[in-house]
Amino acid sequence: MNNLALSFKRKHLLLLSLLSGLLFSLAWPSGGFPPLLFIAFVPLLLIEDHLSLHKQTYHPYQIIFYTYPGFFTWNLLTTWWIVNSTLFGVTMAVLFNSLFMSLVFLLYHWTKRRFSGSGKAYVLLVFYWISFEYLHQHWDLTWSWLNIGNGYASFPAWVQWYEYTGIFGGAAWIFAGNIAAIAVLKAMLQRKSRRPLIIKSLVFVSVILIPLVFSLIRFHTYDEKQDPVQVTVIQPNIDPYTEQYTLEPEVVMDRMLKLADSKTPAGTELLVCPESAIQENIWENEPLFHQSPSILRWREYLRTRPQLAVVTGASTFRRFETGEKVSETARYSKSNDFYYDAFNTALFLDSSDRIQVYHKSKLVVGVERMPFPRYLKFLEDYALDLGGTIGSLGISPERTVFRSSNGKLALGTAICYESVYGEFFSRFVRNGAELMLIITNDGWWGHTPGHRQHLGFASLRAIETRRCIARSANTGISCFVDQRGIISQQTGYWLPAAIRGTVNRNKQHTFYTKHGDYIGRISCWISLLLILATLAGRFTFRSRN
């Protein structure tokens, strides 16, 4: 197998690259067919094999030229909907994310060439790719929407073992399938004995079926313990382009309270409203915080419902007092001569006088955060304006858990984009959350696959943490997600709605919740050792010559 030389012309290499991009796109949620992920890397592996076998003809950096079209196709066809909110954003996301993926193949190709191009080197790509996805979650240019383990978001019954591995277990599964698939392909092309083909075909089928069968058994035998909470979710359907930030706060409050009244009978314990539901700009400094008209309206509503708690999104601000150290995201008000921070905030209110606060901490690059603010703060004036606060927002240092004064509720609230990040999401649970909320505003993207993809990620987070999720989306889709990742009471897109359901609390921690993205961290260490070994081999070769 290792010495099989497939002959490709340059145009064939480009066609293989495009084929790979199409396979990824056709597999991607929502509406995709995820088994295609088990062969989507095969055309790219064939390209790399060809360049390795003809390394006297091709410069190592040409791997970027031949893999980039495939990654560009995948990124474009699955995330084009970003253009509905920002042309600049979709351009940067597609161009740079595709480049980063091609650079992973360059690193793999470079390492493989140094180690004589062995066919067993495929495993190197597994470590490099998972390391890339892990590191891509932890820097200022993060864009992890296309982490390949997310590809099963619409098929939660297939990946119940994410409670042990998170999405990087899914990435390893996909690569195992692709490595087995290319072995089958090469055995077919060699046309020698049928026995190797049969054995490799059985390996390919086993690689897919064993995790799948385990998952299906876990799915049908998982016991969700009954510890119910009665929850109402509001979907006010405020148009982000024509109404949000322009409607009077009282009008928005009237709309939400009317929806709440329709689905919040006696006995309801929690009411969930979406991201940026409160249109008033609220200052967190006392006494202004408690004097906010919107806060007072909610206080009045809760006075007649002492058993009820409310979680709602808001835009809030905090002034830095004289002598207080300002943050790197602080803005300066020339008219008032003070520094302040702006936040995308979740507020928790109940019968107590306390207002609990969590600030969104995974921020959208270029919209809510200028990357590397310490060095690029001067560019904040050019940050993208989606109708709200412009420039870098402040964040919460910890994943705050909201706790009700009666001790019945312990809630984690992920705001929009935060639900894409498994380990980040699980930290709410590690901090004591027994029930998870997602509050979001997906209307910026229009009626496109974007909001449906985002919805599907909630299923993966529910499986990883085994937490029920109540999801409130301003313009849809709102729903409930059980601990197996199954979505219920899904609302229509672009329709005002209120839904009421029962979700179960859970105090137990999964293996993934306890250990997070350990597969990503292990891969990073192995990748570092591989890079050092490659560099050492290169210098040794030079010294001998």
Question: How would you describe this structure to a colleague?
Answer:
This protein has 545 residues and is an alpha/beta fold. The chain folds into two domains: 241 residues; 214 residues, Carbon-nitrogen hydrolase (Nitrilase/N-carbamoyl-D-aminoacid amidohydrolase, 4-Layer Sandwich). Helices cover 44% and strands 15% of the residues. Strands 1, 2, 3, 4, 5, 6, 7 and 14 form an eight-stranded mixed sheet that branches. A six-stranded mixed sheet has the order 8-9-10-11-12-13, covered by helices on one side. Helix 1 runs antiparallel to helix 2 and helix 5 packs across helix 16.
Number of domains: 2
Q: What is the number of E strands?
A: 14
| Beta-strand percentage range | 5-15%
The percentage helix is 40-55%
Distance between the termini: 31 Å
Mean pLDDT: 91
- The SSE order reads HHHHHHHHEHEEHHEEEEHEEHEHEEEEHH
Shape: globular
Write the layout of secondary structure elements.
Blueprint: H1 10-27, H2 42-53, H3 62-79, H4 87-114, H5 122-136, H6 162-165, H7 167-190, H8 194-221, E1 228-235, H9 249-262, E2 270-272, E3 278-283, H10 288-291, H11 293-303, E4 309-319, E5 331-333, E6 338-349, E7 355-359, H12 373-376, E8 401-403, E9 410-415, H13 422-430, E10 435-440, H14 449-465, E11 469-473, E12 479-481, E13 487-488, E14 497-504, H15 511-515, H16 518-544
Helix pairs in contact: 1-2, 1-3, 2-3, 3-4, 4-5, 4-16, 5-7, 5-16, 7-8, 13-14
